[in-house]
Amino acid sequence: MTPLPSGRAELQAALAGHPVFARADRARLAGLEAQFEERRLAAGALVFRKGDPGDGLYLVASGGVSILHDAVGEPIERVRDLGAGDLFGEMELLEGARRLFSARTWLPTTLWHVAAGPILEFLAANPPVEMALRALTIERRTSRLRAVLAPATRREPRIRVDLTVWLALPGELSHRACLEDLSASGACLSGVPAGWTEGAEIAFTLGIDRRPDLLPIVATIQWRRADAVGLAFRDPDRRRVERALAELLQAPR
Predict the structure, then answer these.
(1) Letter string b/e over residues 166-205, b meaning 16 or more CB atoms within 10 A of that residue's CB
(2) CA 15, CA 29: separation in Å to the nearest integer?
């Protein structure tokens, strides 16, 4: 018998050893394995966005994925972090719904993905697996409900913005970037200049087409992943940030 490529062998072992598939028919499970496709993503990559059509089930082979509630104009909620061996996307798969949350990698990540058609056909032929997958959904919903009802621990909620903005840099041409989120104490931007490195102090004015001077910012770069950075503001003006946020959320997209 020809040995499986290493990635396929790891997938086979992951599915065979996963509690959800513990009572699966082995022959049918082998057929399902052949339907999985491997995806390799950089840290900070979007897997899917809230509101996207449900496109099947995912299994984390390596790395890490964060499930996020990140609707524009609302506080960002980190629903859960997932690592190797974790499944996700099961809620929308079982309900035939659009994505309830966004999913984004926080490490270089390898995923296995199977489209909705093959996995739904497999579940129809393997009721114990469908029951186990539904039990996982119930467990996760219960866990999130407990988290939502628990006292808040973050003082400054980050508000999802997801808007293209201008960065006016001293002595340089303005730079186009995406403002991912904003709070009174910091921001996350993607598409930033290559020279922005972790630990550096930067000064710029954040603007939009109708308000190029919307928000002057002096900040320290707390982290950088690919072309995205997290900023901690120095001596932030809370009221000015709040006014800027209101205008950003009303800007055309």
Answers:
(1) bbbbeeeeebebbbbbbbbbbbbbebbeeebeeeeebebb
(2) 8
pLDDT digits (tens, 9 = 90+) for 196-236: 999 999 999 999 999 999 999 999 999 998 889 999 999 88
- Mean pLDDT for all residues in the chain: 91
Residues 6+ apart with CB under 8 A from 245: 159, 161, 182
> Where do the domains of the chain lie?
6-149, 159-250
How far from 125 is each of 32, 61, 128, 189, CA to CA, in Å? Answer: 11, 25, 9, 46
Per the CB < 8 A criterion, the answer to whether 145 and 79 are in contact is no
What per-residue confidence (pLDDT) applies to 172? 85
Residue type for position 245:
L
Phi-psi region of 93 (alpha: psi -120 to 50; beta: other; left: phi over 0): alpha
Structure tokens at 202: 């930067």
| Class level of CATH domain 159-250 | mainly beta
Q: Give the percent of the chain with pLDDT over 70.
A: 94
Q: Are 245 and 233 in contact (CB under 8 A)?
A: no
Task: State the Cα–Cα distance between residues 77 and 57, nearest whole angstrom.
Answer: 22
Tell me the angle at which helices 127-149 and 116-125 cross, rounded to the nearest 10 degrees.
110
3-state secondary structure of 249: helix
pTM (2 decimals)?
0.74
CATH architecture of 6-149: Sandwich (2.60)
Residues with Cβ < 8 Å from 158, sequence gap 6 or more? 75, 76, 181, 182, 183, 186, 188
User: Are 105 and 84 in contact, with CB atoms under 8 Å apart?
Assistant: no
